[in-house]
Amino acid sequence: MRTLVxxxxxxxxxxxxxxxxxxxxVWLATRTAESARALRASGLHLSGVGGPxxxxxxxxxxxxxxxxxxxxxxxxxxxxxxxxxEVAPFLSSLLTSKGTLLPIQNGGVSQILAERxxxxxxxxxLSNLGATMVERGIYEQRNSGHLLIGELAGGLSxxxxxxxxxxxxxxxxxxxxxxxxAVWAKLLLNCSVxxxxxxxxxxxxQYIASGRGRExxxxxxxxxxxxxxxxxxxxxxxxxxxxxxxxxxxxxTGSDYGVWLDEVIAAYGDLKPSMLQDFERGQRTEIDxxxxxxxxxxxxxxxxxxxxxxxxxxxxxxxxxxxxxxxARLDDLLYEVD
Length: 338
Prior knowledge:
alpha/beta
């Protein structure tokens, strides 16, 4: 399957390194010709969980340079969310007549692109691969995660099976008939675990130890969960059950919530939030596709989303350097919402 990987950051670089080392026919696309030249010089080098992988000779070019190239059967879109929305219409012109665009961003990116380009072009995907780009061309895989793909309209299809088979030679690729439910299950945790940690400048285990951290987490998660259910989503279990025990209409009514929260902490508590890394690098975050997406949809559905709205605004203030990540920001959020 002739495949183009667009975006050679932590996730795209990890998948590309494993795909090329396994012998898959893969081409790489970067934002600029300068980045492409640098990657050709360095190659790809991957270490960490799953063992080392390397690719010395790369077919890599700036994305615009593929305009006159042969068409691709699969384009794996691994850029940041806002870049994905911008470049996707052009990428659709690089596909064969039955080719597929597979975005693997967080939040509502796949759904937005399917609405714009059509479900016959866009397949849904998400990743729980933990990876870090040490520097250009050098990556470290942090967990034994996988890609999960499926039709956004639901059900399984021949193309899902075919693409999963092709990608499985590089990374573990699973399929689901309920991709939408899986995307939302991950989004619930992105909204709470990742974003709150970024604002506090801490991992989840650190911020959840305080009463303010637990309260911001509870409110954020409850709002996002309420939006998902109001939107008719049938949530898919990922690492933990997406609906906490004894959860009833945006409130916890029993003691088993603590056990569920411990499961979340065990899975995610020690990870450094990727959004915090964006802050440190001075990069734009994906907040508008995470808590911002929940806020937008919640307002459409008439579901209260005050904490997610406050978090979205707070992240934008940090991006604009009007404030800095700090545990005290959680007090600010509670003050704003109350």
